[in-house]
Amino acid sequence: MLKIAFHPIYVLPLPEGHRFPMEKYELVPQQLLHEGTCTPQNFFKPEYPDEADILAVHEKEYVDALKNLTLTYRQARKIGLPLSSRLVEREFIITSGTIKAAEFALQYGIAMNIAGGTHHAYTNQGEGFCMFNDQAVAARWLQRNQLAQKILIVDLDVHQGNGTAEIFHNDPSVFTFSMHGKNNYPFKKEQSDLDIELEDNIGDEEYLEILKKNLPQLIEAEQPDFIFYLSGVDILSTDKLGKLGCTEAGCKERDRFVLQLCHDHKIPVEVSMGGGYSPQIKNIIDAHANTFRLAQEIFF
Domain Histone deacetylase spans what residues (predicted)? Predict the structure, then answer.
C-alpha cells in the first residue's frame, strides 16, 4: 500500500500575499482523495520526532535557537518565513514524516511525504523556506538504525540542494545529485557529488535527455540500497521562481522515469514534494498529484 505522510499542521496561515503556497499541502491530498487515486488509508499522521534524530544532522545550538525562537534577525530573514512556535513544530513534524516514510518505503518499495524536500537547510542554519533538512535527517536515521548503508539523494527541484550538499560533504556513504537551474537561487552554490546546471528556458526534450543519460549511470556506479527523491515541480515554465521551460507532461515523464528506475532496480525510494510556485494553484496541484498517481501506477 502507498503510504503518504500528511498532518494538518502542514497547513499554517501566512501573511496575505506571501509567495510560499502553503495551501497546496491541503489541496493535494484533497485532489488525490476526490479522484480516487488514494483513500484515507493511504495517509498517515506523523508524530513529533525523537530529537536525537534531528541532532544527528543539525547542531544543537541551532535547534535550540529554533525551539526557543531566539534566532538572530539575520538568521530568521534567511529562512524567509515568519517564525512562530507553530511553524517550528510544523518543521519537526515534516521531518518526522519523512523518517517514517523512509521506514514505510523499506516495507512497500515507496512512500511519500506531502511536504518536505527542505534541502536548503544546513547543519547550523536554515534558509529558503527550510529549517531542518528532512531527507538528510531520514538518511542518517536509516544509517544509524542499520537499515541502509549507501544512499543516493536525487534532487530535481529547480533550486540546488545546497544544504544537502553541505551536510554530506566528503561523506562517501551518501551521494548527492542535484540537477537545477544555473542562474537560480541559491546564487552561492555548494558542491554536491554531482551537480548539473541547466540554462534558462530549457525544455522537456533536453531536460529529459540529460536526466536519462545521468541517473542510470549513477545508480549503476553507486549501487545505492536506498534513494531519496526530491520531486519539486518548480521546473515548470509557469513557475514564478523557476526560469526553466518544462511542461506538465515533461514533469510527469521525469517522475515516471525516476520512479520506474527505482522500481526496476528494486531500490526503496522516499519521495518528498519540494517546491512549486506557479501563479495558478491548479498548475501546482496537477503537477504534484501526477507524482502520487505514478507511484500508485508503477508500484501498486
Answer: 18-285
Identify which of 249, 255, 159, 141 has the alpha carbon closest to the alpha carbon of residue 198. 159
Strand extents, DSSP E, 6-61 = 43-44
CA gap 131, 228 in Å, rounded = 18
Decide: pTM greater than 0.90.
yes
Residue environment code for 262-271, b if the CB has 16+ CB neighbours within 10 A, otherwise e:
beeeebbbbb
- Report which secondary-structure segment, H or E, holds 269: strand 269-272
Show the CA angle centred on residue 10, arms to residues 9 and 13, nearest 5°.
80
Which cell numbers in the block locate residue 173? Answer: 556513504
Report which of 255, 254, 222 is spatially closest to residue 149, judged by C-alpha positions: 222
Distance, in Å, from the CA atom of 28 to the CA atom of 4, rounded to the nearest integer, reads: 11
CATH code that applies to domain 3-299: 3.40.800.20
Residue 79: helix, strand or coil by DSSP? helix
Determine the Cα–Cα distance for residues 240 and 9; give it in Å rounded to an integer.
26
Task: Please classify residue 275 by burial: count the beta carbons closer than 10 Å to its beta carbon, then call 0-12 exposed, 13-18 middle and 19+ buried.
Answer: buried
Confirm if 275 and 171 have CB atoms less than 8 A apart. no
Local confidence band at 14 (pLDDT 50, 70, 90 cut-offs):
confident
**Rounded to an integer, what distance in angstroms lies between the CA atom of residue 289 and that of residue 32?**
7
Point out the residues that are catalytic: 120
pLDDT at position 12? 85
Residue 18 reports pLDDT greater than 70: no
